[in-house]
Write a structure and sequence with these properties.
The structure is a single chain. The chain is of the alpha/beta class. It folds into two domains: about 120 residues, Immunoglobulin-like, CATH 2.60.40.1180; about 350 residues, Glycosidases (TIM Barrel), CATH 3.20.20. Helices cover about 25% and strands about 25% of the residues. It has eleven helices and 26 strands. The protein has an eight-stranded parallel beta barrel, surrounded by six helices. A seven-stranded antiparallel beta sheet has the order 2-15-19-20-26-22-23, with helices on one face. A five-stranded mixed beta sheet has the order 16-1-21-25-24, with no helix packed on it. Strand 5 and strand 6 form a beta hairpin. It is globular and about 65 Å long. The C terminus is likely disordered. Bound molecules: alpha-L-arabinofuranose. Alpha-L-arabinofuranose binds next to loops.
Amino acid sequence: MTQGRLVVDPDFALGPVDRRLFGSFVEHMGRCVYEGIFEPGHPSADEQGLRRDVLELVRELGPTVVRYPGGNFVSGYRWEEGVGPVAERPTRLDLAWRSIEPNTFGLHEFMSWAAQAEVEPMLAVNLGTRGVQEAADLVEYANHPGGSELSDLRIKNGAVDPFAVKLWCLGNEMDGPWQVGQKSAEDYGKLAAEAAKAMRLVDPRIELVACGSSNRQMPTFAAWEATVLEHTYEWVDYISMHAYYEEADNLADFLASAVDMDGFIDDVIAATDYVRAKIRSPKKLKISFDEWNVWYQTEYHRLPPRDWTHAPALIEDNFTVADAVAVGSYLISLLNHADRVGVACQAQLVNIIAPIRTERGGPAWRQPIFYPFAQMARLARGVALRVPVQSPEVVTPKYGAVPAVTTAATWDEETKTLALFLVNRSVDDDIVTTVDVRALQPHRVAEQLVLSGPDVRATNTATEPDRVRPRTENSAELDRGRLTVSLPATSWTALAVSCTPTQPSTVNA
Ligand code: AHR
């Protein structure tokens, strides 16, 4: 058994936890919308065709914000075709996924789903095949109270109150050769700035996300961010990041991959702050990490080109305990950057590399990656803390020596609760970790939730939906302000610690 050591002190606050860090993503892709959240005729569907069984799982998962309708899909999307009487909506070829798009689910259906799912909507506009006018039109349709053609059309289509959507993405992955309407940084930067200007003229309260690079491996990475932001900096609030990880041939590498996520975030902060310095802006831009997850992409890219079908089963990866532990480490990385990452969306919500899986006409169930997300989304409140970690190292072929224990913590002054999230990325060794919590006067471990082996390859299926579940433990020990917790090899742990309310200080008259 090896040892780790952490110190938690509310004096070392990183910043408030933006609840938008626990976002998700619904794209018109494969079976995420159709047969995922929407399936008219399903035994659990409501009168609009929304699956109630899925809604229930979404509420349990607890995402705070959901990005829609893409993803690559948005770059060829005509939003007007997803509103109005369903029988009059056209069927289209979706070029992004070479699928048939019937448009039976569109903006109104999404907004109604979002209200029931209790999430904030985050909409993306098409800057691939479309431009400034269509982007401004969508803001007018969604957010203008009434008295203009488009806002009156929304009212006629059943939504008297404006949707009041605050968060908007200016396109998606516009640097990618796979993107319909791919652009150079220069062209995209100019277009995004003009679209942002027009959208803000319609509704000045909106918040905007400019597209960063599609991933850290893009040859134009960092130069893309610099050029795009030189055009858009004063118009936008966020720059986007996307990252997907997979286990290639080495589990230790995979479990250490949050090291890459940390470095990627730091690089984007550097590129962003470079522009800030260059244009002498007082504003500090935030990051919208609006696509992140595990995705077995290598397997996906080996597949032959798809035929034109409706709702094909695309990238429905079956996730394991090891994948859930990796997801836990990405959540930790995001929380440890709470001072600069303001929005984050796990991609995606249902069926597509998702925490929730469904069968057509059948059940819905939780994948192992469901649990770290649900636990952090529920427990991470208040302020994120900087937590110095002393940990044994794991030596990995790809990332070299990395600390085996990675951790993040939040302190909720209101409820006097410390939440601690820990991943042990050692494949072989359990690690006993001591957490010095004396500064918070802890008095009780309220929750200790653990996800680990013995079989790190275990997964959940429609017939065995609960094979992988977190277990509640009470093995963490508190002694005079020091918490001792054993972290099994390849594991995720979430802890909630109740602390003694501090006495109000007496003021001398
Ligand atoms: O989430 C799946 C796809 O991955 C998205 O459509 C795209 O933005 C990214 O490349």
